[in-house]
Amino acid sequence: MVFTREDKILIKSLYETKGYGARKLLKEFLQKNWMKAGLDSLITNLRSTGDIVRKQGSGRPWSTRTDEALAEVADLVLSQEDKPQTHRSVRQISCATGISRTTVMRVIHDDLQLRCRKKRRAQKLTAANKVT
Predict the structure, then answer these.
(1) Quick check: helix, strand or coil at residue 36?
(2) Which end of the chain is more exposed for a tag (fewer CB within 10 A), N or C?
(3) Contacts of 42 by beta carbon, 8 Å cutoff, 6+ apart
(4) If we measure between CA atoms, which residue out of 115, 39, 32, 127 comes closest to residue 77?
């Protein structure tokens, strides 16, 4: 069970003012369906840091979606002003940069707000073909 912000504030205030532990909180708030292990970890966090907020940078860091990788993908995905048709496909960018194909697609879609499209070959129509 994930605690809401209001739940965390309530638990913190009851722990600090009345000294409630995990078992006392479970008895008092049966309707909340809290788990004892979750309360224990939250109270342990309160004891060590004195706050209910997660530490900054405590999650798993991004290893590939760095600023340098974003700039490199942005250069390869868009055609240059003086050189039209120099853009590359997702697979080509992945091979050139060493970043996985799915991460390249995430960078293009989430960070650059562009759409990934697959290149397709088409017939080149002449003026006579267009008339017919």
Answers:
(1) helix
(2) C
(3) 3, 8, 11, 52
(4) 115
Helix (H) or strand (E) holding 5: helix 5-18
pTM of the model: 0.48
d(CA 8, CA 43) in angstroms, rounded, equals 10
pLDDT in tens, 72-130: 998 888 876 667 766 788 899 999 999 999 999 999 999 888 886 777 788 888 888 88
80 contacts: CB under 8 Å, gap ≥ 6: 86
Cβ atoms within 10 Å, residue 3? 17
**How do the domains of the chain map onto residue ranges?**
5-49, 67-111
CB contact set of 12 (below 8 Å; sequence gap of 6+): 46, 52
Give the orientation angle of helix 67-77 with respect to helix 90-97, to 10 degrees: 140
* Cα 124 from Cα 84, distance rounded (Å): 18
State the Cα–Cα distance between residues 3 and 17, nearest whole angstrom. Answer: 20
